[in-house]
Design goal:
Blueprint lengths: L6 H21 L6 H5 L1 H5 L5 H9 L3 H6 L11 H5 L6 H14 L8 H11 L8 E2 L5 E2 L15 H17 L1
Antiparallel strand pairs: 1-2
Helix pairs in contact: 1-4, 1-7, 4-7, 8-9
Amino acid sequence: METSIDEREVELITLMLQRAVSEMSAEACEQCGVCPSACPVARHMETFNPRRMIAKISLGQIEELLKSPEIWTCTSCLKCKERCPENISPYDVILVLRNLAVRAGYPYPEGYDDFVKNVLDSGMAQQPQAVRTRGRQRRDRESLGLPPAQRPRDMEAFSEILGGIVKAGRSA
């Protein structure tokens, strides 16, 4: 496997992550189960469990997580972070794992590049769509009293800045 960053950097980041999480689990995380009970993804996917991810890291199973689609399943709702009685954030750990996975050259979800291209081209993650009411009527933004969705004022500058960030992330 060809990596996009120095293997020593991957080892250092892995060591830092492992040390931080092992300290959390030994001194703070009581494996109480609040994070998975609050997580909307864990409710619908048996394979996703933020508490289990913290445990895997403290057991040194980081490589397994980096290769797993599990780290890409988090919706970033932050419920684990806001509800943890010890102020630990599995979400923050997941972000580190995602960054490390990309930097180490592991695959990320299919369609991500198309999503980024759409944001760069249109300034929006998703085009506005009509919604269906409980009475099964289709309503658009205007009929709901919402202003029209707007692109960034300076689309060229927006695309240039965001494109630079994306390019820097890929070459890091």
